[in-house]
Design a protein that fits this description.
- The chain is of the alpha+beta class.
- It is built from three helices and 13 strands.
- The chain has helices spanning about 10-45, 50-65, 70-75, and strands at about 80-85, 90, 105-110, 125-130, 135-145, 155-165, 165-175, 180-185, 200-210, 210-220, 235-240, 245, 270.
- The strands form three sheets. A seven-stranded antiparallel β-sheet has the order 1-2-3-4-5-6-13. Strands 8-7-9-10 form a four-stranded antiparallel β-sheet, covered by helices on one side. Strands 11-12 form a two-stranded antiparallel ribbon.
- The chain starts with 10 loop residues before the first helix and ends with a strand.
Length: about 270
């Protein structure tokens, strides 16, 4: 009787097959790793410092290029508690409830992408800087002229998120002795010699995302170079009640850093009705 023997793999063939399988597995692992990095990159968006620099550059440009708006135009739109005569003033935005705090108000005279005109009737706008604690930094704005020339209703008021990562906003005042005072609001006088509800010299913004933190000082004076750091011997702080306390270790990341990136999102929620 003839016996038939089935051929089997030799040891060399088995080793070669294992080596090829190992190379394929390594390639698959590398591909999965690169894919996870790409997904993580899109989920986390741009580096945090680009976002911070974008917000800083946007606000500095807005303050330096703010347009003159008359109090008569603001009164017609329902703005109250106005104080100041320059291009940046303090005021209560329209539809403010009792107890609302005054905010920085500035004019916008161009069609920047953040302020989208549906009809393209009027580029002149009034904007308010609005910090909302854990919700971040917003801008409240409206057109000085009605978007619909055939409508007799009031102009709608819009709100646009600038950055959800702003965790603190303080107004910085500098007295005649070059002492610095930090206020959480502008309704009370930070110190003697500084008038209540007067315009601060700059604002201080603190950004935070996960373990990353940045501080920015943005000047409200157009002829001031923002690239500076407060001197510790001249810095003092006061609470909203006007009580002054010494502050140590106060440092400011230089304001005029060049950066790219968009300052916040362009998506603005609409408040009010046509």
């Amino acid at each position: 009787m003839n016996r038939r023997f089935k051929s089997a793999f030799t040891l060399v063939e088995i080793l070669i097959a294992m080596a090829i399988s190992g190379l394929v597995m390594i390639g698959v692992c590398v591909l999965m790793f690169n894919t996870s990095l790409a997904i993580r990159h899109f989920e986390e968006a741009e580096p945090f410092d680009l976002h911070v620099n974008g917000v800083e550059n946007f606000l500095r440009y807005s303050f330096r290029n703010s347009a003159q708006i008359t109090q008569d135009d603001l009164k017609k739109a329902g703005v109250s508690e106005m104080k100041g005569t320059g291009k940046i003033i303090t005021a209560l935005p329209p539809d403010s409830f009792a107890g609302d705090k005054v905010k920085l108000c500035f004019g916008v005279a161009d069609d920047r992408p953040l302020f989208i005109a549906r009809r393209g009737i009027s580029p002149e706008k009034a904007a308010f800087l609005d910090f909302r604690g854990e919700d971040g930094l917003y801008i409240i704005w409206f057109f000085l002229k009605n978007e619909n020339p055939n409508s007799l209703s009031e102009n709608p008021v819009y709100e646009t998120l600038i950055s959800p990562f702003v965790k603190s906003l303080e107004y910085v005042y500098i007295d005649s002795d070059d002492k610095w005072y930090f206020q959480a609001d502008m309704d009370t006088s930070p110190a003697s010699g500084i008038e209540a509800k007067s315009l601060p010299s700059m604002i201080k913004l603190e950004f935070e995302r996960a373990n990353e933190k940045f501080t920015r000082y943005i000047s409200l004076v157009s002829n001031t170079d923002s690239q500076f750091e407060p001197q510790l011997t001249q810095v003092s702080t006061s609470s909203a009640s006007g009580t002054s306390n010494g502050q140590s270790g106060q440092s400011g990341n230089q304001g005029g850093q060049s950066g790219s990136g968009q300052g916040g999102s362009n998506g603005g929620g609409k408040k009010g009705a046509n």
